[in-house]
Amino acid sequence: MIELLGLGETALRQLGFVAAQADSRCFLDQSAWRIIAPLPNPGKIIGVGRNYGAHSQEGGMARQEEPRLFVKLSSSVIGPGEHIVSPASVHKLDWEVELAAVVGSVMRNMSVSECMQRVAGYTLLNDISAREFQFDVTPPQTTFAKSMDTFTPLGPCIVTCDEISDPGNLDLKCWVNDELVQDGSTSDMIFPVGYILSYISRFITLDPGDVIATGTPAGVGHFMKPPRYLQSGDRVRLFCPAIGELHNTVE
């Protein structure tokens, strides 16, 4: 997929043309295949913390003047239906539904509009977090807390930008065991997608296939009263009408 993205818009248009010509002979029975993460091994995954007004408010945190960035390791990526594996020493496992932007071509010190023209598309990302390593230790270990194996469910697909005209007006929802726990909109972002990309590109070159997780709305377990965390057997389901559904079970 990264190689395909690197070929640019022409290749994506050609792929769309081929797909449009497909008939029933091109389709397999669902039992014969499974969906994997659309980017199983992205070059970089960069996250933005506290980027929704309501999420900052629920955590008692002030609005930021610039994006708060962290890195997630690509080895943590899993796809739809795969299990989130909680290490035995982790007891504060939390969920975060996020819109993720997928970089389509190189971004280096670019403006907001230039960056938006280079986005390949969008997908869903569950920023699974071990809160004890994020909040209960000094100094906080955000990258470690969010990069453990299986802590980045990604998918179910990449929806190209021609299908999502306004990433700043998308509904995001998360259910845990059929209970709706997050129900927000990207319109509550403090820093919109284009600003985030432009800001990062001032300091870090973004390459095709890089994934930018743009933050989560209110409703994470850590800030519930009392706090609530994922347990073995819990089913987590993310949904965005423009992208689809991403579901995983905690092991």
Automatic annotation (TrEMBL):
The keyword Aminoacyl-tRNA synthetase does not apply. GO terms for molecular function: hydrolase activity; isomerase activity; lyase activity; metal ion binding. Keywords: Hydrolase, Lyase, Metal-binding. Residues 44-250 form the Fumarylacetoacetase-like C-terminal domain. InterPro entries: FAH (IPR051121), Fumarylacetoacetase-like_C (IPR011234), Fumarylacetoacetase_C_sf (IPR036663). Belongs to the FAH family. This is Ureidoglycolate lyase.
